[in-house]
Amino acid sequence: MTDKNEMDSSANESSSILESPEEKKKRFLMEFENPFKCDKCSERFKKKKYLREHKAEVHAY
Ligand SMILES: [Zn+2]
C-alpha cells in the first residue's frame, strides 16, 4: 500500500530544512510557547487574543 510512502514524504517535507539540534529545540519551544498560529502568514502567538488582533490588523481584508 501507499500508506508508508505518504508517511515518508511528509517526514521528508518537515526535515527538508536542515536544522541544528539547537535550532530545532528553539523552534520546538517557540511552537510550544506560541501555539496560536496565523493561517495566513504563519506567525505565532502566545494568546488567541493576540492572534485575533494580528488578523484584524494585518489581514483586515
Ligand atoms: Zn498573519
Automatic annotation (TrEMBL):
Gene3D superfamilies: Classic Zinc Finger. InterPro entries: Znf_C2H2_sf, Znf_C2H2_type. PROSITE patterns: ZINC_FINGER_C2H2_1, ZINC_FINGER_C2H2_2. Residues 1-23 are annotated as: Disordered. Residues 36-61 form the C2H2-type domain. Residues 9-19 have a biased composition (Low complexity). This is C2H2-type domain-containing protein.
